[in-house]
């Protein structure tokens, strides 16, 4: 009895969703423009890569 109630809820929840389907539509960023995506990835990963170097430089220059 309990399993049937859960199954009915999940199928009705899936039916009520209004999300677009297809590749790339479930991501929080757009993959339509490959050059914009490349720029965003360079900034994101580049900032994470340069952060330790900036911290070390700051510590070396600190008196």
From TrEMBL:
Pathway assigned in UniProt: Energy metabolism; oxidative phosphorylation
Membrane topology, as annotated: Single-pass membrane protein
Pfam family for this entry, one: COX7C
Main location: mitochondrion
Record-stated family: Belongs to the cytochrome c oxidase VIIc family.
Family matches, as InterPro entries: COX7C/Cox8, COX7C/Cox8_sf
One Gene Ontology term, aspect cellular component: respiratory chain complex IV
Keyword Magnesium carried by entry: no
Functional description taken from the UniProt entry: Component of the cytochrome c oxidase, the last enzyme in the mitochondrial electron transport chain which drives oxidative phosphorylation. The respiratory chain contains 3 multisubunit complexes succinate dehydrogenase (complex II, CII), ubiquinol-cytochrome c oxidoreductase (cytochrome b-c1 complex, complex III, CIII) and cytochrome c oxidase (complex IV, CIV), that cooperate to transfer electrons derived from NADH and succinate to molecular oxygen, creating an electrochemical gradient over the inner membrane that drives transmembrane transport and the ATP synthase.
Swiss-Prot/TrEMBL GO biological process terms: mitochondrial electron transport, cytochrome c to oxygen
Subunit field text: Component of the cytochrome c oxidase (complex IV, CIV), a multisubunit enzyme composed of 14 subunits. The complex is composed of a catalytic core of 3 subunits, encoded in the mitochondrial DNA, and 11 supernumerary subunits, which are encoded in the nuclear genome.
Name by which UniProt lists this protein: Cytochrome c oxidase subunit 7C, mitochondrial
Keyword Lipoprotein appears in the UniProt entry: no
UniProt feature coiled coil, ranges: none
Localization (cell): Mitochondrion inner membrane
Transmembrane segments: 35-56
Domain of life: Eukaryota
This protein's UniProt keywords: Membrane, Mitochondrion, Mitochondrion inner membrane, Transit peptide, Transmembrane, Transmembrane helix
């Amino acid at each position: 009895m309990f399993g049937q109630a859960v199954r009915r809820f999940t199928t009705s929840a899936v039916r009520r969703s209004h999300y677009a389907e297809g590749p790339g539509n479930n991501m929080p960023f757009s993959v339509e423009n490959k050059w914009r995506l490349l720029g965003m990835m360079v900034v994101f990963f580049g900032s994470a890569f340069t952060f330790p170097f900036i911290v070390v430089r700051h510590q070396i220059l600190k008196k």
